[in-house]
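Input chain follows. Return structure tokens only.
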Amino acid sequence: MLRRIIKNIIDTAIALECFFVQSESHFKKRVLILRKDTLGDYIIFYPTLKCYRKAYEDAEITLVVSKLFQSLRPLLKDFENIIWYDAKKFSDNVFYRRRFLIDLKKRGYDIAVQPTFSRETMGDFMMKLTKALVIIGVNGDCTASLESEKLKNNSIYTKLITVPEEIVTEIDKNVYIAEKIIGQKADVCFPTIDINLFSDNEAKKIMEKYKIIPKSYVVIVPGSGTTFKIWPIEKFAKIADYFVEKEITPVFCGSKGEKKLIRDVLGKMDFKNKAIDISGETDLPTIIHLLKQSIFYFGSDTGITHLAAAIEVPTICVIGGGHFGRFFPYGNLEKNRIVFDKNMKCKNDNWACSKNLKLGESAPCVKNIRVEDVEKEIDTFLKTL
């Protein structure tokens, strides 16, 4: 609580300082597109960027993009101005936070767009500080806890787009939002990534180092951006052992911060000497090439799931009910598969249960996913390959 109060005081001081910051003079229209969300969200969103590029073809466009996407820069080749948003530094470093927000005001945007269905209060704050003449957002599910706060944040925008309830998937939401902003039909395809845009040198080194044979392994990612989406480690261990029994090598991937989680999974395995842990050793281009040479992907509801789908690698994802049907699966449902708790009663509740969970505790709808159901899905899947 004290931390939040201090941040509010700091943000108020920054907003006051921004009030006196003069925007740069410019002759070409300037447009800001704010999508500071995580890897998976951005992979789903980025195909619509060509619509915005076309709609504002005479403007100078600046993208605010999560730093997590930085190694995939070739996918954004049509945009010269990119601000790489570091969420951790923004939260922990007041000097970074201040400079970031002041620079938004200083740039002097004519149009500011936040095409995000699930708006966050800080995103609204950023939009407000731009003082753009036109500020466009989405009247979706925002993080404001009070109705009065939501109405206050909505008033920041000169145009709010309401997405019809029958539009469920995130891909379809993004297309609808883009069409309402650009005022025409959006020619948007399924998210795809051309692996030839990225070097495979590091992937080759890792495969040589660990003696990984192409098409003999499965990439497993137990981690997730939010801990309540993580399937219990003992269940991941049982599935990893199940792969070993089928003579498929489990290759565990993850960030440096997820190394302990993966070690805990390995510690629960019966055949841990048959598994390979490359956590903390890969960037996204390397993971792309490792995924492409795997049999398929198995893991949590996380950004790598969407990365695998975007390069047409078959996926099996253990998924809870918080956003059921919204983010995954999509595309080829024979290849992009999910396993879930068939008895859950919390579908699309926006992870309401997470407020009552201890740090590191799995949501009930994730924890209750049965190992037997995952094994059955794997067996069915392997018969089609």
